[in-house]
């Protein structure tokens, strides 16, 4: 029986988070802003990233039987005029999609944001070819604010739009 646990990431998760990200990049190379070849993060760099996210936002991991299979990172803007809002990204390994894990991660983000008086707006960017993610975000109450045409180049003469979505927490 699989047991799902969602919790804040800690420094000791660094190696598993790197492995998770590499797996997601292998499984779905056309839905993330980096490529597997570009993703060369060291464990120390990942630990620093975890510390930063926990200080200026939220970093959640989804675990099944002790293995990290999902990740949600939310970062508040450090600038005063933008400090009421932040942006998040999320990834789930293919084997664990369509099980409600993405929705559970977002619900945890909402619960955390409602307790943090700084957060008024949560934003995200999603590739237009990531239909499953767009469906989930819409279901969770996010609305499209804009679209950057051909913002992402997947290959020669192959582009997708970058869709900007947000939800107000007030």
Question: How would you describe this structure to a colleague?
Answer:
By secondary structure, the protein is an alpha+beta fold. It has a single domain (4-123), classed as Gcn5-related N-acetyltransferase (GNAT) (Aminopeptidase, 3-Layer(aba) Sandwich). 31% of the residues lie in helices and 36% in strands. It is built from four helices and seven strands; from the N terminus they run βααβββαβαββ. A seven-stranded mixed β-sheet has the order 1-2-3-4-5-7-6, sandwiched between helices. A hairpin with a 2-residue loop joins strand 2 and strand 3. Helix 1 (14-27) crosses helix 2 (43-56). The radius of gyration is 16 Å and the shape is globular.
Q: Please give the domain count.
A: 1
**Helix fraction?**
25-40%
Supply the helix-strand structural class: alpha+beta
Going by CATH, the architecture would be: 3-Layer(aba) Sandwich
Reading the helices and strands in chain order gives: EHHEEEHEHEE
Mean pLDDT: 94
| Total beta-strand segments | 7
Strand order of the largest sheet: 1-2-3-4-5-7-6
CATH superfamily: Gcn5-related N-acetyltransferase (GNAT)
Instruction: Indicate the proportion of strand residues.
Output: 35-45%
Low-confidence parts: none
What Rg do the Cα atoms give?
A: 16 Å
Shape: globular
Question: Class in CATH?
Answer: Alpha Beta
Pfam family, one: Acetyltransf_1
InterPro entries: Acyl_CoA_acyltransferase, GNAT_dom, MshD_Acetyltransferase
GO molecular function: acyltransferase activity, transferring groups other than amino-acyl groups
Protein name: N-acetyltransferase domain-containing protein
């Amino acid at each position: 029986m699989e047991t799902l646990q969602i919790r804040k990431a800690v420094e000791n998760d660094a190696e598993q988070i790197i492995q998770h990200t590499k797996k997601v990049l292998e499984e779905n190379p056309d839905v993330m802003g980096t490529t597997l070849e570009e993703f060369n993060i060291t464990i120390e760099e990942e630990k620093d990233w975890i510390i930063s996210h926990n200080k200026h936002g939220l970093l959640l991991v989804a675990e099944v039987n002790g293995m990290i299979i999902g990740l949600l990172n939310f970062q508040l803007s450090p600038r005063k005029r933008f400090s009421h809002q932040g942006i998040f990204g999320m990834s789930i390994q293919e084997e664990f999609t369509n099980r409600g894990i993405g929705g559970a991660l977002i619900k945890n983000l909402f619960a955390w944001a409602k307790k943090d008086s700084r957060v008024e707006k949560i934003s995200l960017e999603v590739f237009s070819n990531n239909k499953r993610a767009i469906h989930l975000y819409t279901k969770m109450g996010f609305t499209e604010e804009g679209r950057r045409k051909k913002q992402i180049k997947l290959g020669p003469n192959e582009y997708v739009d970058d869709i900007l979505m947000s939800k107000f927490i007030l």
